[in-house]
Amino acid sequence: MPTSMPCPSIRIPIELLTQSSFSQFGTVIENPAHSTLPPSQRLPIPDAVSANQGSATKYLDVTHMSNLYNLAPSKKPAKAVMNMFVCAPRDLRPHEPSESMPSSWGDFDFDDEDADDSSNRQLFDIQILERHPFTTQTFIPLGLSQSDNHTQYLVIVAPTLPASASRLRTDRPPPYPTPAIKKSKSLRDIFARARPSPFTNEAAPPPSQFTKLHPSQRPKGPGLPDLKNLRAFVATGNQAVTYGAGTWHAPMAVIGDRPIDFVVVQFANAVGIEDCQEISLKADRNADEGVVVMVDSDASGKVLVKAGIGAVRAKL
Ligand SMILES: NC(=O)NC(O)C(=O)O
């Protein structure tokens, strides 16, 4: 995989971070009692039990944690680690109209002139994406309230392109989880894979071994990030987020007045290229900018949602 990737000019509107919109990338951790979504758009509440002599509600399995380091080439075992990231607010640049294409996500009617006069649009240039192929990574903000409009964070993620579409000027690809392929031992095993099966009347294809997994836990593959389908979500202060293993994401982007402290929970084995793989995004020669998130905010500084659920549209 190259360490940098050329990109067309793309502008991305901001969506609200919800479990359903984020599902393929990871999980959103929040107290379901504080959800701001209309009931019809909420996912089922996680299983809960009473705890602490009845004084607490304990929601079970609120996020998925994966440790795939047994598939890492080094075979070096990982341990669970908790780090703290103190993330400073990012520099935004002033809005300028552009010929950039819209991302293909959301129902955004891309027209820069649509920006509401009362809202302020600034631009965040995404320069780098990274992934942790062998581990989930959970960011838990400390000390932010749901109503804090002055300090928010963006969760920026991209699906993974098929490996066949990812061969640029290929250097040696970085390590990626590849389960060992079991060799068939007998002719019966070999024929059993044929459909329709010679041993049964069943003609349907075998169920995928992945369908039972949460979408965020399904293997992403070793490919490059799919920049045209990159998405940017704004989180409220009482949400934590888990990136599924191998999910391409931008380093955490804080918007606002002050840094946010995040406790970050993941597995790591201290082999650099197995813990974190980065790719920098370089605007194509013909592109006037690279991949850009449009950060619209209201007079109080609150980031506005412009695509998907809860979008505030400039013209209705
Ligand atoms: N996401 C983020 O801000 N950073 C990382 O994932 C990291 O491990 O550096």
UniProtKB/TrEMBL annotation:
Catalytic activity as recorded in UniProt: (S)-ureidoglycolate = urea + glyoxylate
Compositionally biased residues, Acidic residues: 108-117
Gene3D superfamilies the record matches: Ureidoglycolate hydrolase (2.60.120.480)
Keywords tagged on the record: Lyase, Purine metabolism
A GO MF label: ureidoglycolate lyase activity
GO terms of biological process kind: allantoin catabolic process; purine nucleobase metabolic process
A Pfam short name: Ureidogly_lyase
Assembly and binders: Homodimer.
PANTHER family tied to this protein: UREIDOGLYCOLATE HYDROLASE, UREIDOGLYCOLATE LYASE
Protein name from the UniProt record: Ureidoglycolate hydrolase
Native species: Pleomassaria siparia CBS 279.74
